Backbone:
């Protein structure tokens, strides 16, 4: 089958949305399909959004591909008679983030009208799809609530789960994740000030917001925890990731209302590491059950500190939760056979 | 509750009756919490006429560029009437702004002609006529100006304006269809807003019928026919006296006076232009109003509103907006037979004072209720909200079209339609249903 | 781009990104499917390109119509060719754009949009003098010439000749491998290897039949398929000379560069276009009229004087080196 994977992308910006495309491309080829990836550059400047969607919609794909799979929004507005949408998230500033400080869309007539227009366009584009998948229950619920459509949850696996290794449980809580404000690494740094054990924190990942990383470093200095907090603001290779997780105590992932459980959670689970997350982190709780596959605490530094300390003080607990997390992957069917089967149905 | 920032583009002086209507509506909008800014659109000398009181800021539209207007207002509403000096500054703004057009007149050729005086003259006008109504609408040897009735029928230029608006308001059904065919957005029919002023009741003077014609003494007001109706009836000839309250040209005054002399009717009284207070005062001794019109050039008639609100029996020609008054409230004359019918009605009136008064009272009650600014705003707001809601789509279209224009393509190029189709296929219509269904959730 | 089509332009694209990264630049390629039929569609394609929005980059390097229209303040064009059907191919009636009023509107739109894109660019490079000439003739735009370098020079190290003449490149009638087979009759004892992918099965069949007809089948080896780069390099490295006879080629041609890189002389003909910019008769190779007899005589000479042939080949390598056609210099120019 000739398959086109269509996604939007910020040039040179890497991250989970890119990985899912790259991995899917590899896997589809492995299954014997001809695959081309089309990355469309995309901006979120408000006046550009609708014209941009119209331009996407005009791209002709039907005679080149038997099937199109779209991932990052608003790539799903492209037209194809056999369009499969695997929605990773909405353009969130118009959806769940609307009305919060995370959204630049003004709460006035113009902002509301634009929001209504985007929602309508999304509903059309999602509604016309041959199959509609969401990468999590959070996204599926938003599709139901905001677009009035039903979708099926299809969890994204990582490319090669088998490469992860599990060694001794060390004293480092790790966050291997883009460093952005809504990922709230700052809560982790602040938490370190309230810990009572020798637990350490390691934040690593690339950023589009160098100011945020600088603020994290400053916060670590101010709280006097710089010696126990390691911050590496760069792209982390797979090999490094494997090594970091191999000896970690656990993973921490406390984004604000994230759409899915997130690759950091899944990668940790493959390395038999549990995840510490927050009660308002959204889709993470689809994977993490507190006390079973990780710890879910209030989104405040003291509660996080307590969770870090619990794991540090009790390696048996860290190991028990980590093992359960690893088993959870199988239970949820987070694997490529499932994914490819569904996307080509 | 949405509070719209409205740019109210309108004449704003005492001489414009459209300004009076527009100010009543603006006041009602402001009363409901909307921010109404008056953008005056008078051209030429009329720009300097003193402003009438306003519910918000007043400025001239020329003082703000398109970008500022787009940014400052959620929606811009333009009052369109057939008089260049009062409405001329609006014309150059249609290309750059999304304007909701309130169409006060059907015939807008005068407005456009005024504009063409500075923009290409008759050559340009003839081009615009052909562009709007087809190559066959104006032969090379045919004069541009023909009688106003034919003009209103064949090329009123209404369509040239309505095509440039994003939504339109008609004040009567008789021309709404023309707007629906040409305006790219929604069209609403709203009865003209009219706040009845305090008017003196009709006098109780037996044996006399004072008849008033209000407004500019144009040929289409059928004053000549009314004089002939009076002159032709021995009963009416002595009883009836006719006053023309409004502006007049000397030539027309002579013509009408001559007719009166010939048919041996009482000489006419011409007041010339009067302000509203004088106007109301001069109704003190009037028994009957004449709103005969042939042809009908206006969308809705302020004079008709005033006549009905005054509680006086009113003669109308039974077509256009004048035919939209329910039966039993006016004295409808058949178009083309105004003189004969008017004569019979006036003769009937002299013997049926009570019935006539009852009819006038019904009309008075009806006009005040139906034409209240509150009712007008009730109808206008959903239209404005829809225009505001569709604004992102319109702006996106405008933006895409402007890119195509940089390729040197014409406005009518099929590529523009294909781009529009891309937008349409994203389901603008469903957007509305969805929005309605979401109700409060989206706020 | 055209999905699933992989040719010279795609190779160039991949190697450009690879070499930018090697130069320490954070680079990423982006490609949008392009549809040029019917001609109306061209306007939509330009519109799409014009309405895409970039950010998070410093410089854009744009290669192809219409994507080079994407707005960006610091944009460098490396033009492999324009949409030729709106330019030179139109003049020779080889265009998909109809010859009517609408066609003329489309052409005017393309040219207008092209000129806008060109005027917005910081630098414009073309891949060959002929492309630069077209750009000047049709658009009045000056451009620098930046020939695409060989992607894998490390494979073409040269070596001892095994005595055969090698014809590389795509196999079709415009590349005129058939003329070499006809020439063999006039070059007794000379061996020819034709190695490259045929455009169609009939192109392959025709050559095989021709060899039999000409009675030279025992002296021709056919490898009519896409060879791996290593296989191809091995054939070049062991050849006496490379014969490359395209009709009116725009550029040097990868075949020429591979031969020179391996210090092999190039046999070509007088109407091969851009190839003649580097292949000079008696200096870096042999140039004759496009005629089997003349070609036969040239083949004979090359085979009869292997030392002279090798000297020509060495001069070819020097010519290539002095043209500084390497990726590092190319990348440097594109980033300047």
Residues:
């Amino acid at each position: 089958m000739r398959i086109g994977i269509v996604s939007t992308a910020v040039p040179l910006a890497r991250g989970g949305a890119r990985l899912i495309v790259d991995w899917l491309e590899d896997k589809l080829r492995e299954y014997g399909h001809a695959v081309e990836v089309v990355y469309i550059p995309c901006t979120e400047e408000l006046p550009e959004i609708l014209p941009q969607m119209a331009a996407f919609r005009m791209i002709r794909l039907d005679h080149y591909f038997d099937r199109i799979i779209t991932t990052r929004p608003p790539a799903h507005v492209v037209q194809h008679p056999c369009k499969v949408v695997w929605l990773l998230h909405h353009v969130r500033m118009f959806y769940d983030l609307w009305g919060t400080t995370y959204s630049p869309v003004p709460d006035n007539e113009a902002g509301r009208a634009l929001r209504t227009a985007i929602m309508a366009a999304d509903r059309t584009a999602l509604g016309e799809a041959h199959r509609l998948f969401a990468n999590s229950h959070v996204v599926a619920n938003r599709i139901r609530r905001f677009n009035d459509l039903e979708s099926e949850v299809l969890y994204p696996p990582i490319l090669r789960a088998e490469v992860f290794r599990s060694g001794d449980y060390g004293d480092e809580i790790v966050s291997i994740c883009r460093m952005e404000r809504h990922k709230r690494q700052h809560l982790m740094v602040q938490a370190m000030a309230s810990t009572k054990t020798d637990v350490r924190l390691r934040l690593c990942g690339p950023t589009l917001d160098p100011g945020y990383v600088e603020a994290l470093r400053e916060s670590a200095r101010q709280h006097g925890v710089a010696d126990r907090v390691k911050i590496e603001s760069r792209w982390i290779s797979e090999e490094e990731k494997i090594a970091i997780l191999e000896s970690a105590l656990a993973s921490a992932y406390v984004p604000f209302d994230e759409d899915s459980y997130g690759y950091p959670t899944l990668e940790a689970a493959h390395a038999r590491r549990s995840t510490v997350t927050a009660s308002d982190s959204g889709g993470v709780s689809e994977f993490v059950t507190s006390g079973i596959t990780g710890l879910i605490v209030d989104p405040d530094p003291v509660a996080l500190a307590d969770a870090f300390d619990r794991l540090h003080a009790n390696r048996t607990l860290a190991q028990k939760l980590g093992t359960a997390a690893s088993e959870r992957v199988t239970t949820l069917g987070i694997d490529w056979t499932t994914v490819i089967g569904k996307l080509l149905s | 509750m949405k509070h719209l920032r409205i740019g109210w583009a309108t004449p704003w002086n005492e001489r414009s009756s459209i300004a009076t209507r527009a100010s009543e509506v603006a006041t009602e909008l402001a009363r409901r919490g909307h921010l109404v800014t008056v953008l005056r659109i008078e051209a030429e000398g009329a720009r300097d006429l003193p402003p009438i009181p306003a519910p918000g800021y007043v400025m001239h539209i020329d003082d703000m560029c398109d970008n500022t207007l787009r940014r400052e207002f959620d929606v811009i509403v333009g009052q369109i009437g057939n008089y260049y000096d009062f409405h001329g500054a609006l014309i150059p703004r249609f290309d750059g702004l999304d304007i909701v057009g309130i169409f006060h007149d059907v015939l807008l050729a005068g407005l456009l002609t005024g504009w063409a005086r500075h923009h290409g003259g008759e050559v340009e006008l003839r081009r615009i006529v052909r562009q709007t109504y087809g190559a066959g609408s104006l032969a090379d040897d045919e004069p541009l100006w023909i009688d106003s009735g034919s003009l209103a029928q064949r090329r009123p230029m209404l369509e040239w304006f309505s095509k440039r608006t994003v939504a339109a308001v008609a004040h009567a059904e008789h021309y709404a269809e023309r707007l629906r065919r040409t305006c790219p957005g929604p069209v609403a029919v709203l009865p003209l807003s009219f706040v009845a002023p305090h008017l003196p009741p009709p006098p109780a003077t037996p044996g006399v019928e004072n008849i008033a014609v209000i407004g500019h003494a144009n040929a289409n007001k059928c004053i000549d026919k009314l004089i002939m109706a009076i002159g032709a009836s021995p009963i009416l000839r002595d009883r009836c006296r006719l006053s023309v309250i409004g502006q007049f040209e000397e030539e027309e005054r002579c013509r009408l006076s001559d007719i009166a002399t010939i048919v041996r009717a009482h000489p006419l009284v011409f007041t010339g232009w009067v302000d509203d207070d004088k106007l109301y005062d001069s109704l003190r001794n009037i028994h009957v109003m004449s709103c005969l019109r042939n042809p009908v050039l206006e969308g809705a008639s302020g004079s008709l509103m005033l006549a009905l609100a005054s509680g006086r029996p009113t003669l109308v020609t039974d077509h256009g907006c004048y035919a939209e008054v329910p039966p039993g409230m006016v004295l409808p004359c058949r178009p083309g037979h105004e003189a004969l019918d008017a004569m019979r009605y006036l003769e009937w009136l002299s013997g049926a004072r009570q019935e006539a008064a009852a009819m006038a009272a019904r009309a008075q009650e009806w006009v005040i209720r139906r034409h209240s600014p509150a009712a007008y705003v009730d109808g206008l707001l959903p239209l404005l909200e829809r225009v505001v809601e569709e604004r992102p789509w319109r702006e996106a279209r405008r933006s895409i079209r402007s890119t195509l224009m940089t390729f040197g393509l014409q406005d009518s190029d099929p590529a523009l339609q294909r781009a529009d189709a891309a937008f349409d296929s994203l389901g603008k219509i469903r957007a509305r249903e969805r929005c309605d269904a979401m109700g409060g959730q989206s706020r | 781009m055209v999905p699933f089509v992989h040719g010279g332009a795609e190779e160039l694209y991949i190697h450009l990104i690879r070499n930018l990264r090697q130069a320490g630049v954070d680079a990423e390629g982006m490609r949008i499917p392009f549809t040029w039929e019917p001609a109306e569609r061209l306007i939509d394609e330009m519109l799409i390109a014009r309405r895409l929005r970039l950010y998070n980059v410093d410089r854009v390097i744009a290669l192809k119509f219409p994507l080079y229209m994407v707005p960006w303040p610091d944009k460098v064009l490396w033009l492999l060719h324009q949409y030729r059907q709106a330019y030179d191919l139109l003049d020779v009636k080889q265009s998909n754009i109809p010859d009517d009023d609408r066609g003329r509107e489309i052409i005017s739109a393309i040219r207008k949009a092209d000129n806008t894109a060109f005027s917005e660019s910081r630098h414009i490079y073309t891949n060959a003098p002929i492309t630069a000439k077209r750009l000047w003739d049709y658009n009045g735009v000056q451009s620098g010439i930046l020939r695409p370098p060989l992607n894998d020079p490390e494979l073409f190290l040269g070596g001892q000749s095994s005595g055969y003449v090698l014809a590389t490149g795509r196999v079709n009638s415009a590349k005129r491998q058939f003329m070499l087979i006809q020439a063999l009759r006039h070059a007794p004892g000379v061996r020819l290897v034709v190695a490259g992918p045929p455009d169609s099965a009939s192109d392959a069949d025709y050559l095989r039949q021709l060899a039999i007809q000409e009675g030279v089948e025992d002296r021709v080896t056919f490898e009519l398929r896409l060879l791996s780069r290593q296989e191809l390099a091995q054939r070049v490295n062991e050849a006496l000379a490379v014969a490359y006879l395209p009709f009116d080629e725009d550029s040097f041609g990868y075949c020429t560069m591979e031969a020179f890189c391996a210090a092999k002389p190039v046999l070509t003909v007088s109407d091969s276009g851009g190839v003649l910019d580097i292949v000079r008769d008696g200096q870096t190779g042999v140039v004759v009229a496009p005629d089997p007899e003349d070609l036969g005589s040239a083949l004979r000479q090359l085979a009869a004087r292997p030392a002279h042939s090798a000297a020509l080949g060495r001069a070819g390598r020097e010519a290539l080196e002095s043209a500084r056609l390497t990726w590092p210099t190319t990348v440097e120019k594109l980033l300047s």
Observations:
- Chain C has a mean pLDDT of 94.
- Chain C touches chain B at residues 40, 43-44, 46-47, 50-51, 105, 108-109, 112-113, 116 (CB under 8 Å).
